[in-house]
Amino acid sequence: MGSEFGQFIEWDYEKELDWLLLQYPMHEKLRRFYAELNGCYTSNPAMFEFDKSWDGFKWLNVNDRDRSSIAFMRSGRTGRQIVCACNFTPNRHCGFVVGLDAPGTLREILNSDDVRFGGSGMHNEADIPISEKAFCEHPYSAKIDLPPLSTVYFEYIPERVSEDDE
């Protein structure tokens, strides 16, 4: 009801939405972010398949009150996993740690700080390696960079286990 393009006033069922705001660049950039966020959501079943249970949700970093940042994972039936990290402060956080259950990599798929959405353009490297350093009851971890006042989504790509390792 107007939040997808940053309407200033509360929605009123007796009036039309303030569509004229889309002529201003920042409102159009917010609308573009919502469109890409919705696309990310609908193209990644891990984001919604287990909405009515805890089966598809896992905390990865929930105790970093000093940075006011959190991270969690959503999992789907196919095993695909999406890591989401949020920074609720105006400060950038480099090296924010997330706990993970297996080796592999993280690949950024959506970043609210992208310049296309009016952000500063701070991104993570193409593939973030996962180390064998335990964190928050998880045997592995990765360090990511969180832009200020942002949410960043990553595809979690677990390392394939060869038959020789089994």
Structural write-up:
The chain is mainly beta. It has 1 helix and 8 strands. It has one helix at about 25-45; strands spanning about 55-65, 70-75, 80-85, 95-100, 105-110, 130, 140-145, 150-160. The strands form 2 sheets. It has a 6-stranded antiparallel beta sheet. It has a two-stranded antiparallel ribbon with strand order 4-7. A hairpin with a 4-residue loop joins strand 1 and strand 2. The radius of gyration is 18 Å and the shape is globular. The chain starts with about 25 loop residues before the first helix and ends in an 8-residue tail after the last strand. The mean pLDDT is about 90.
Give a short summary of the structure.
The protein has one helix at 25-43; strands at 57-64, 69-75, 81-87, 93-100, 104-111, 128-129, 140-146, 150-158. It has 166 residues and is mainly beta. It is globular, with a radius of gyration of 18 Å.
**What is the rounded distance between the termini?**
52 Å
Inertia-based shape: globular
The major β-sheet equals:
6 strands, antiparallel
Compute the CA-based radius of gyration: 18 Å
Strand content is 25-35%
> Element order, helices and strands?
HEEEEEEEE
Structural class: mainly beta
Low-confidence stretches: none
Helix content: 10-25%
Strand order of the largest sheet: 1-2-3-8-5-6
Number of strands: 8
Treating each run of at least 4 consecutive H or I residues as one helix, how many helices?
1
**Overall mean confidence score, pLDDT:** 89
